[in-house]
Write a structure and sequence with these properties.
single chain; about 475 residues; mainly beta; seven-stranded antiparallel β-sheet; five-stranded mixed β-sheet; 4 helices; about 25% strand; elongated
């Protein structure tokens, strides 16, 4: 299968990352933590030790988990404290209704779902500001702003066409050659809400997404070149039950137009309907199975068109020839669908599924539960404390995990082989060492089980099913 990230076309950034002075509030992009009540974590009573052996396993061909080393049962838990309560007593509410805020009921607000940017563990390095955030919560708008195609016509000068020059008219222009274009006019759709995603900080973009750099992002720098389109894609959410959400390639610019140039991939189905792909494409992958519960398997990466049709991947990311039409798949987002913008990847979580997921406070309670057990380093014999968030400051209480063998210990100078590798004093294996910290973004969890595993190579802890 072609690599979905291969040979992208780099787009020069003509603007800095969005600042608070550029932001304008919209009804669907608050991105606030809804704070729905979570499970009661119970009283800490266990004094289990963190320094249990974990084994490295391949996960989905890309990431890894760390589990307790056992010759007969690999990949099981780290034997961390088990005092946490797994009571199912939770505040019950309709999954699409938001909770009360400041004592004011918000039952009129309907939540479609959440878009989470992979790689930030709940917050951007510089903090979530305005429309640039690590998570976007999509609500039903007060007034519908969706659009749908109405009619198309051929013009000789698309930039002078009435549908293009009319600031109140949405349109998509497909340039066939220098002297001819097809303009598709769009009309208002009172049954849908539209949310736009892209790199631009201009008003039409609801969710500003910049390129995600791998590794430590605390010293994140300004991106001067980007492969993410300024108007990358749009999501249309049905305003009525079952609140279907669909993704389309390309977004409308401030003049309410989408322009596909002469070199863009485009075609006409049966000589009538016209469609196309963006330069670097918008890719989606639906999970196979139920995402929440950890029973899903990775699907196959597909590409979605401007009109929402689903195709197999092109030979390369920006190749001129489209892939084959995949009729059995659609652009309707499922719980756990991944959206690849070519520079950043978004995870879609449905409101119905999030109603059963852990809350941030619930995860913080789990960290408190672990720390209440006062785990000790087997080398320094000092108490270890798992932090709730990443920090640059060094602490003798910070636990570290040896990625080769999985042993957890505190910071000490014994066994340094070089700048990146150390010898484990317990089993003598040599390998990299990273900080052990909690994965605190609730949307990444597929269950509410205790954090017994950690990702390799970042060291974020989560439940076994979430890591797998």
């Amino acid at each position: 299968m072609p690599d979905p990230h291969r040979t992208p076309t780099v787009e020069q950034s003509d603007e800095p990352p969005s600042s608070s002075s550029q932001e304008s509030p919209t009804s669907g992009d608050s991105g606030r933590d809804l704070g729905s009540p979570g499970r009661d974590p119970g009283d800490p009573t266990n004094n289990s030790n963190l320094s249990q052996n974990m084994k490295d396993h391949s996960v989905s061909g890309a990431s890894h988990l760390l589990g307790h080393h056992s010759p007969t049962k690999p990949g099981v838990d780290m034997r961390l404290p088990e005092a946490i309560s797994h009571s199912d007593e939770r505040h019950q509410r309709h999954p699409h209704e938001t909770p009360h805020e400041h004592g004011t009921p918000r039952d009129a607000m309907v939540k479609y779902g959440e878009l989470i940017v992979l790689g930030y563990n709940g917050v951007l390095p510089q903090g979530d500001k305005g429309r640039r955030r690590s998570k976007f919560i999509l609500y039903r708008r007060k007034l519908a702003n969706g659009v749908k195609p109405s009619r198309q016509h051929v013009v000789n000068k698309p930039h002078n066409a009435k549908a293009v020059t009319d600031s109140k008219q949405h349109s998509v222009s497909y340039t066939l050659n220098r002297s001819q274009s097809v303009v598709v006019e769009y009309t208002s759709d009172e049954d849908t809400d539209m949310f736009q995603i892209g790199r631009s900080s201009e008003a039409p973009i609801d969710c500003v997404v910049m390129d995600t750099a791998p590794g430590d992002k605390i010293l994140d720098s300004i991106i001067t070149q980007s492969t993410i389109s300024r108007f990358a894609c749009r999501i249309a959410c049905d305003r009525d039950v079952p609140y279907r959400s669909r993704v389309f390639a390309a977004g409308f610019d401030p003049t309410r137009n989408i322009f596909l140039g002469e070199k863009a991939t485009k075609w006409r189905d049966e000589g009538i309907e016209i469609d196309g792909l963006t330069t670097n494409g918008i890719l989606i992958m639906h999970p196979k199975g139920k995402f929440f519960g950890g029973k899903a398997d990775p699907g196959i990466w597909r590409e979605v068109s401007v009109c929402g049709s689903v195709y197999a991947l092109r030979e390369s990311r920006s190749a001129p020839q489209k892939g084959a039409l995949v009729e059995e798949e659609s652009n309707t987002l499922q719980d756990g669908t991944l959206i690849d913008l070519c520079g950043a990847t978004l995870l879609w979580r449905s409101a119905a599924s999030l109603g059963h997921s852990p809350t941030k406070r619930y995860l913080e309670h789990q960290v408190e539960e672990l720390n209440a057990g006062r785990p000790q380093c087997p080398v320094g014999l000092n108490t270890l404390v798992i932090p709730k968030k990443n920090t640059l400051t060094e602490s003798e209480k910070q636990p570290y995990v040896y990625l080769t063998c999985g042993h957890v210990q505190g910071e000490h100078a014994w066994g340094r082989e070089d700048e990146t590798r150390r010898r484990c004093p317990i089993c003598q294996q040599i390998g990299p060492v990273v900080k052990l910290q909690m994965g605190i973004e609730p949307a990444f969890y597929v269950d509410t089980n205790f954090p017994t595993h950690a990702f390799n190579p970042c060291g974020h802890m989560a439940s076994e099913q979430s890591v797998r």
